[in-house]
Amino acid sequence: MLSIIIPTLNEEKYLPLLLKSIKEQNVKDYEIIISDAQSTDKTLDIAKKNNCKIVLGGLPGKARNEGAKVAKGNLLLFLDADVLLGPNFLKNAIEGIENKKLDVATFPLFLSGERKNKAISHFYNWWVVVSKPFLTHAFGAALLVKKEVYEELGGFDEEIKLAEDHEFSRRAKKIATCGIIKSTYVLVSDRRFKTDGWFSVAIRYLLCELHLIFIGPVKSDIFKYRFGHYKNETKD
Predict the structure, then answer these.
(1) Which of 30, 120, 161, 230 could form a disulfide with 2 if both were Cys (CB 3.0 to 4.6 A apart)?
(2) pTM of the full predicted structure?
(3) HEC profile of the chain
(4) Distance (Å, rounded) from C-alpha 159 to C-alpha 191?
């Protein structure tokens, strides 16, 4: 069984789109867990109408951990609320992790919106592939993990303020087999770039990457990351 865990905070605009893309998949043996950080919009109403389990979340790391605590599946799929799954994503993801004998899997990501986003997406996906031998990446927008490996790692480090997903993957690499499943993809909203600015986001990610490499996990508020500040952003 597959447990799909989605951290949320005021996601009434994007959550219905993600849930629809999940329901359109040809795999039906799954549960959906919404780990919510006290939303004040219709997020919880949407989750209830779609028969999702609901737990109290927090920042993404904590939210994923809280969702995993109640998960019944032997595979955990962590998704951001503002993504859409590609065709046959669940089928290809499950087959991919089995056929490649992986314990932790990530996927190609493509930004929605403007034409330039396609080039940016290809660059990011290229970097994930070429850096894999020495610098593992696993973007929490779509991360598939065997539950036994997740538990052995102790889940996500809740003290980390930014890039807890990459830190998780680098710990995982020490005890497990990590890889990229290229037979499917995830479409990611570009709202954070529109809201925070392309240059600002790019610099933040670059500095965060350097921080991870040379200093370690980001446990201070140096990058001033804020969860769920996209409430007023319009749909793509």
Answers:
(1) 30
(2) 0.86
(3) CEEEEEEECCCCCCHHHHHHHHHCCCCCCEEEEEEECCCCCCHHHHHHHCCCEEEECCCHHHHHHHHHHCCCCCEEEEECCCEEECCCHHHHHHHHHHHCCCCEEECCEEECCCCHHHHHHHHHHHHHHHHCCCCCCCCCCEEEEEHHHHHHHCCCCCCCCECHHHHHHHHHCCCCCEEECCCCCEEECCHHHHHHCHHHHHHHHHHHHHHHHHCCCECCCCCCCCCCCCCCCCCC
(4) 25
* CATH number of the domain to which 95 belongs: 3.90.550.10
Contacts of residue 104, defined as CB under 8 A and 6 or more positions apart, other chains included, come to: 138, 143, 144, 145, 146, 149, 169, 172, 176, 177, 178, 179
Distance of CA 211 to the CA centre of its chain: 20
Name the residue with tokens 């006290």: 38
- The answer as to whether 229 is a domain residue is no
| Residue 224 domain flag | no
Q: What is the pLDDT of residues 3-19, one digit of tens each?
A: 999 999 999 999 999 99
pLDDT in tens, 38-51: 999 999 999 999 99
Tokens linked to 157: 């480090």
228 within a domain of the structure (yes/no) = no
**Number of domains the chain contains:** 1
